[in-house]
Specification:
This protein is α/β, with parallel strands linked by helices. It is 44% helix and 15% strand. It has eleven helices and eleven strands. The strands form three sheets. The chain has a six-stranded parallel beta sheet with strand order 1-11-8-7-5-6. Helix 2 crosses helix 10, helix 6 packs across helix 7 and helix 10 packs across helix 11. The relative contact order is 0.17. It binds guanine (GUN). The site of guanine (GUN) has 10 residues, from strand 4 and helix 6. The site of guanine has 10 residues, from strand 4 and helix 6.
């Protein structure tokens, strides 16, 4: 069988950002730019890179990004107060608290403080409920990005078997919901699943978000599958690799995402899209534009 076709996340994300920048330009002309507040507590090196990229690409599309850098010893009270202020601020449309938070902070309590309309990560119980209940709400960025990549293949999803490896609230669980919504038959595997490959080998669509380098080898991939690798792991030699053994899966899949350059750029593009969507709650001019586009 021929090698899988690469799904180029960088290219698709760049196209989406271009579309977004045109939308942002129109919103700006009628008032102010959509705005995003990013909170980073501590100095986790990966988080610092992610946050820098979020700022960089916000700027690229014309979204106003403000970074709130807090020392690692910041207490829960200070963080809750900051979110309270950002919730109230008429100049802020989206709030993102970069995870993980330092261990002395109860992340759930912090997330729950975010106004669900400003919750661009889709992590508040309200937005989780909207996804589960098939209602309009904010959906976490990485699964949204994965879905765009899957759809870019042009393969019809209805009735296909989709296997998600991972059950995090940020990726695995919302991903399973999105695939269900597309009428896939969904199997959700996780770290306690026995005989993982007996499930992954059934997958027409395989999304691996386990955070374990090389977890899925070629043996675990069905011929002709769409493989979406969410893992971003740093190897000993400093290079990044995914949760899938890329060279092996390439021999069996029909479509596959590389790491880096697959899911990563899409997560940020979806964050920007969610920020523009959030701005519709607070900027009437943004809401009109989005409605007009939906009607056309
Ligand atoms: N840490 C790693 N990925 C993410 C993400 O998508 N959102 C937030 N808030 N933190 C993260």
């Amino acid at each position: 069988m021929a090698l899988a076709q690469l799904i180029d996340g960088r290219l698709i994300a760049a196209r989406l950002r271009k579309e977004l920048s045109e939308k942002v330009e129109k919103i700006k002309k009628r008032g102010r730019a959509p705005s995003l507040a990013v909170i980073l507590a501590g100095e986790d090196p990966s988080s610092m890179i992610y946050v820098r990229n979020k700022e960089k690409y916000s700027k690229e599309v014309g979204i106003e990004a403000s970074l709130y850098r807090l020392p690692v010893q910041t207490g829960e009270r200070a963080l809750l107060d900051l979110i309270g202020e950002l919730n109230e601020s008429p100049d802020v449309d989206g709030i993102l608290v970069q995870l993980p938070l330092p261990p002395h902070i109860n992340a759930q309590k912090i997330i729950e403080k975010i106004d669900p309309r400003k919750d661009v990560d889709g992590l508040t119980p309200w937005n989780q409920g909207c996804l589960m209940g098939r209602r309009e709400g904010m959906v976490p960025c990485t699964p949204l990005g994965c879905m765009e990549l899957i759809k870019s293949t042009g393969v019809s999803l209805e009735g296909k078997t989709a296997v998600v490896v991972g059950r995090s609230l940020l990726v695995g669980s919302p991903m399973a919901q999105l695939l269900l919504k597309e009428n896939c038959t969904v199997i959700q595997a996780h770290s306690k699943t026995k005989d993982l490959f007996s499930y992954t080998r059934q997958a027409d669509i395989l999304v691996v978000a386990a955070g374990r380098p090389g977890l899925v080898s070629g043996e675990g991939v069905k011929e002709g599958a769409i493989v979406i690798d969410v893992g971003i792991n740093r190897r000993e030699d400093g290079h990044l690799c995914g949760d899938v053994v890329f060279e092996e899966a390439l021999q069996k899949a029909a479509f596959i995402t590389p790491v880096p350059g697959g899911v990563g750029p899409m997560t940020i593009a979806m964050l920007l899209r969610n920020t523009v969507k959030a701005s519709a709650f607070f900027l009437p001019q943004s809401s009109d534009l989005i409605k007009l586009e939906e009607e056309s």
